[in-house]
Amino acid sequence: MTPDIPSPAGFANPVETWNRRYAAPGYLFGTAPNAWLAEHAGVWQAGQHVLAVADGEGRNSVHLARLGLRVDAFDPASVAVDKARAWAAECGVTVNFSVADVEAYDWPLGTLDGVAAIFIQFADPALRERLFRRMVDALRPGGVLVLQGYTPRQLEHKTGGPPLLSHLYTEAMLREAFEPAMSLEVLRDYEAEIHEGQGHAGRSALIGLVARKR
Ligand SMILES: C[S@@+](CC[C@H](N)C(=O)[O-])C[C@H]1O[C@@H](n2cnc3c(N)ncnc32)[C@H](O)[C@@H]1O
After folding, report:
1. What pLDDT, in 10s, does the model give residues 38-85?
2. Residue of 119, 148, 167 to test ligand 1 pocket, by largest number of atoms within 8 Å of CB
3. Which of 53, 100, 158, 170 could be stapled to 105 by a disulfide with Cβ–Cβ 3.0 to 4.6 Å?
């Protein structure tokens, strides 16, 4: 299985690297939503406004739109966003897609009911700090973050995710990143067999978070 970004060089040119990966036929991570997101999407009600961060080919944003949510999504890989637009059209839903990276995206401030952050481990510790701050700041009080990532044990499984320890999450790291601004309602470190296209496939060391802004 190829890791999410196979070599350190890929991190120097993330857009080129990701566009090349997404240029292959089909959907790299499939069209079914991430299981952690699907399990916890009930935290939001139809009509609420949610942002899907680094949404790739749209499997997660389209799922949320199908639940009746008002969905914004961004990703810097235009090839992925084109595919996401096609998937949304095929499903008959509207998602407000943008081609942008974390720094260029026009983040809202204090208004969102939700943020979905699924496998956004492209971020090194410095970018991760800025990214997590943006996500928390974008939520209104009571707004909910649903996040999924890999833990360091994933370096043994090699079934997806970046091959860099500094990009992976632990429970302690997520507590430190989000408390006390957020109340952590679910924080689970677990292993599961996942099949998300060719990109994430097999036994995986995962961490899931559901957190509510205070
Ligand atoms: C592992 S994929 C996950 C995609 C999607 N969240 C999903 O679960 O299907 C990581 C995504 O992060 C995007 N990405 C890489 N660098 C980024 C950056 N600096 N800002 C925002 N997104 C970025 C990539 O284009 C890619 O779509």
Report:
1. 999 999 999 999 999 999 999 999 999 999 999 999 999 999 999 999
2. 119
3. 100
Q: Per residue in 122-158, pLDDT tens? A: 999 999 999 999 999 999 999 999 999 999 999 999 9
Amino acid (1-letter code) at residue 129: E
181 has which bridge partners?
Answer: none
C-alpha pair distances (Å), 53 with each of 42, 70, 101: 18, 14, 9
Pocket of ligand 1 (CB under 6 A): 4, 14, 18, 29, 34, 54-56, 59-60, 75-77, 80, 101-102, 118-120, 122
- In the reported structure, the alpha carbon of residue 75 is separated from the centroid of ligand 1 by a whole-number distance in angstroms of 6
From CA 205, how far away is CA 64, in angstroms rounded? Answer: 25
199 compared with 5, residue with greater pLDDT: 199
- Name the residue at shortest CA distance from atom 14 of ligand 1: 54
